[in-house]
Amino acid sequence: MAELAALADGSLPAARRGALEARVAASPELQVLLERQRRAITVTRAAATEPVPASLQARVEGSIGRAKPRRRRVSLVPGLALGSAVAAAAAIVLALVLTGGPSGPTVADAARFAATPPSEPAPHRLDHSAKLAARVDGVAFPDLARAYGWRPVGVRRGVVNGRAATVVYYEKGGQRIGYAILAGSALPSPSGAQSVERRGVAFKTLEVGGHPTVTWQRLGHTCVLTGATSRSQLLTLASWRGGGALRY
């Protein structure tokens, strides 16, 4: 991620540029993250040249006066150092750029994406592992075939409201479920969902498009499991750790 940021602002050493650009070209997820970082740099640079409204500056300076003294300069994006008042204004815009803002993806959006058909063949199982050869930001998809009989049948990669997402589809007895993992930070918890805790993990259950849906976090990423099966079955699959092979 540090090299991706350096590639976006032009500070990545030439010796590393070719390899990273090739990796980005082969990964839709990295392409989205790189574009998001470039937009963040553009926003913060633009903010640095804009005059700060007097009302905002007064509020920021008042907050600084009441808070514990901190360093006077803040770096939001590698290579960019902004004054405290400008940083406060830019931080709001930067957060909207990086997260998608008020119109960013929701768990329901991810569930609807997981309900679309696969566009790629199923990933193979890694040798001597409970994982499949498909992952998002280091978060691997589980092999559910051996333990539960749900075999992987396809993959779909895309963008859900500005956020890269990957879905692995599983089938059993004519039923299909979609397991989605979104790149980037975790999504807000869906409102109105029911909470269930299993094996120390907090799960949220809801219904999307007429299908039961379960969402939870793994390694700081939002996972969504939805499809034509029962809520209890989805919870069982979501909470499986594969004999400790999967890190939650």
How would you portray this structure in words?
The protein is an alpha+beta fold and 248 residues long. The chain has 2 domains: 2-99, no CATH class; 107-244, Phosphorylase Kinase, domain 1 (2-Layer Sandwich), CATH 3.30.200.100. The chain is 37% helix and 28% strand. It has 8 helices and 11 strands. The chain has helices at 2-9, 14-25, 28-49, 54-66, 84-99, 107-114, 145-148, 231-239, and strands at residues 73-74, 82-83, 131-136, 139-142, 151-160, 163-172, 175-182, 194-198, 201-208, 211-218, 221-227. The chain has a 7-stranded antiparallel β-sheet with strand order 5-6-7-11-10-9-8, sandwiched between helices. Strands 1-2 form a two-stranded antiparallel ribbon. It has a two-stranded antiparallel ribbon with strand order 3-4. A hairpin with a 2-residue loop joins strand 5 and strand 6 (163-172). Helix 1 (2-9) packs across helix 3 (28-49), helix 3 runs antiparallel to helix 5 and helix 4 crosses helix 5 (84-99). The radius of gyration is 21 Å and the shape is globular. The model is unreliable at 72-76, 92-102 and 243-248 (pLDDT under 50).
Tag the structure with descriptive keywords:
7-stranded antiparallel sheet; 8 helices; alpha+beta; Phosphorylase Kinase, domain 1; 248 residues; two-stranded antiparallel sheet; disordered C terminus; 2 domains; globular
